[in-house]
Amino acid sequence: MTLPAPVSTLLSRLKESGFSAYVVGGCVRDALLGIAPHDWDICTSAIPEQMQEVFHDLHTVETGLKHGTLTVVVDHEPYEVTTFRVDGDYTDHRHPDSVCFVDNLTEDLARRDFTVNAMAWSPDTGLADPFNGQQDLADNLIRCVGEAEKRFDEDALRILRALRFASVYDFAIEPATSAALRKMAPDLSRVAGERIREELLKLLCGKAAGRILREYPEVLAEIVPEIRPMIGYDQQNHHHSYDLWEHTVRGIEGVPAEPILRLTMLLHDTGKIAARTTDEKGEGHYKGHQKYSEQIARKTAEALHLDNASRERLCNLVLHHDIPLRTESGAINTDRSFLLRRLNRFGEEDLRTLFLIHRSDRVATGYTTQEREDARLKERMAALDALLAEQPCFTLKDLAVNGRDLIAAGLKGKAVGEALQALLEAVMDGKVPNEKDALLSEIRK
Ligand code: ATP
Ligand code: MG
After folding, report:
1. Residues 331 and 411 in one domain
2. Which residue's CA is the nearest one to ligand 1's atom 27?
3. Is residue 112 a contact partner of residue 118, using CB atoms and an 8 Å limit?
4. Tell me, what's the pLDDT at 94?
5. Are residues 268 and 356 in the same domain?
6. Which CATH number covers residue 91?
7. Residue 68: CB within 6 Å of ligand 1?
C-alpha cells in the first residue's frame, strides 16, 4: 500500500515517540479495492494530549477530543488521528454514552461496523485484519463485525450504511447481516436526519442502487414512509407496464448519479396514490399528482435537513418532472418560442435536467424504448444547443430596454414591469426583434 507522504510522516512521528499507529477503515478498504481513498484516517495508541505533544509544531484542530479525535493539518490537508477506543453502552441507539480509550488495535477494530471497514495497515506491521475483511472484500460481501442484530441495535444508522456500501461497491449483504437489518429497520426512525441524508444520497448514487432498492424497499420505507404503499402498486394505466415502485427504481437507474437528481426520481411519483381517480373503464388517472409529490419532497427534504438551495431545486424538479416537452401540435419541441419560454421559466441547467428526467421517466414506464427516448433527448439537447449558440433573449436582463428606458418613454409604476414582461414575451415569440428602437415603438403602439 502506498501512503501519501504526509500520512507516512504522521505515522512515523507517532512511532518514533513510542506509540503504535495505523491507517484504518475506509482508506484501507478502498486501497485494497484499488480505489484511491478520498481521505486517510489514522488510529493510534496515543491519547489526545500525547498526540498534541507529538504534533506540537503542526497546526491541529480539536475536532473531537472527547472521542479521541485530533485533526492534524499537513500541507493544508486535514488528517483525522483517533485514539484506539471502545464504545460504551448505546442507550439511545444512536451514540455511545461514553467512549473508553484502549491501547489495543483489535479492540478498536471490533467496534467498527463491517468487516471490510475493520482493517488497519502500517508499513512495518502490514495488514491487521482480525475479522477477515480481506476475504469478504474478495467475496464482495458486507458483513457485520460481531453479532449483527446487536450491532444494529447499538447504532441503527449502520442499517443504512450496510445498504450504502452494498450499493456503492455492488456487494451482496451476508445473510445473517441482511436478516438482522430487515428486522431492526424500524429503529432507523430514531436516527438524526442529517446522518441519514449522507448515507441515503450515497446509496442512491451507488452503482447497484437499483438492485438494493428492489431488495430492500421496506428499509427505505422507514425513511420515506410514502414508499410503502408504492411497493407492488398497480397503476392500472395502459401507459405503465410496471408497478409504481419498479417504475420508481427504473427511473432512478435512468438518470445520472447526481444526489438531487436521484432523490427527485425517488420522490417524483410518491403523490400518485393520493391523487388517484378511476374512470368507468377501471383505468387509473393521476391528475395533479405532481403537487402531492412536491409536498412529500418538501417534507422529506426537511426531515433530511437538506440545505435550502438543494431543497428548492428538488421541489422544483419534482413538481415539474413531467411538464410537456412538445408543442401543442405534438412535434418535439424544436419550436423556438416554446424552448425560449421553457428557458425563461427554468434556466438552462434545470431545463437540461428536466430533459434527462423526462427520458428516464418515460423509459421507466416500459411503454417506449430506450433507443426512441435517447433519440428524442438528443434532438432536444441539439435544439437547445443551437438556440443558445445564438445567445437569444429569454430573461428580462437580456432585453434591449430596461425599466429606466420605459419610464423615460412615459410609463409609470406597475405598468413598467408589465410592459417589460409583455416585451420579453413578444421577443421570445419572435414578434419583435430585441432592439431598443423596435421595442420602444412597440410600447408606443
Ligand atoms: P467513506 O469512503 O464513505 O468515507 P468510510 O468507511 O470511511 O467510507 P466513514 O463514515 O468515513 O466511512 O467512517 C470511517 C470508519 O469509521 C469506517 O470505515 C468504520 O470503520 C467506522 N465507522 C463509521 N461509522 C460507523 C458506525 N456508525 N458504526 C461503527 N463504525 C463506524
Ligand atoms: Mg471516510
Report:
1. no
2. 158
3. yes
4. 65
5. yes
6. 3.30.460.10
7. no
Q: Would residue 210 count as lying in a domain?
A: no
Ligand at minimal distance from the CA of 158 is: 1
Sheet holding 21-24, edge to edge: 59-64, 69-74, 77-83, 41-44, 21-24, 120-122, 126-128
Residue 93's pLDDT is what? 67
**Ligand 2 being an ion, which residues bring their Cβ within 5 A of it?**
26
Going from the Cα of 115 to the center of ligand 2, the distance in angstroms, rounded, reads 15
> Considering every ligand atom, which ligand is closest to the CA of 196?
1
Decide whether any atom of ligand 1 lies within 6 Å of the 155 Cβ. Answer: yes
Report yes or no on 166 lying in a domain: no
Q: Which three cell numbers stand for residue 51?
A: 498526540
| Distance in angstroms between the alpha carbons of the first and the last residue of the chain | 77
Closest C-alpha to 142, from 178, 107, 187 = 178
The radius of gyration of the chain from alpha carbons, rounded to an integer in Å, stands at 28
Mean pLDDT by 10 residues, the chain (445 residues): 96 98 98 96 97 97 93 96 88 73 95 98 97 98 98 97 98 98 97 97 98 98 97 89 96 98 98 92 92 98 98 97 74 79 95 97 95 94 95 96 95 95 96 96 90
The one-character DSSP state at 396 is G
Structural domain range at position 287: 224-389
Domain final position from 347, 368, 389: 389
Mutating to test ligand 1, I would choose from 81, 112, 114, 158 the residue with most ligand atoms within 8 A of its C-beta, which is 112
Note whether 383 and 421 are same-domain residues.
Answer: no
Q: Could you tell me if residue 117 is inside a domain?
A: yes
DSSP letter assigned to residue 46: S
Task: Please list the residues that pair with 61 across neighbouring strands.
Answer: 71
Query: Which of 85, 116, 132 finishes a domain?
Result: 132
Q: Which three cell numbers stand for residue 160?
A: 443504512
Domain count, the chain: 3
Amino acid identity, residue 67?
Answer: H
154 lines ligand 1 (CB under 6 A): no
For the Cβ of 167 lying below 6 angstroms from any atom of ligand 1, the answer is no
Same domain for 358 and 407, yes or no, is no
ipTM for the complex shown? 0.99
Residue nearest to atom 25 of ligand 1 (CA): 113
Distance CA 314, CA 262 (A): 10
CA dist., res. 206 & res. 164, Å (int): 7
Same domain, 230 and 317: yes
Q: Is the CB of 37 under 6 A from ligand 1?
A: no
**Within this chain, do residues 42 and 118 fall inside the same structural domain, yes or no?**
yes
Per-residue confidence (pLDDT) for residue 87, from 0 to 100: 84
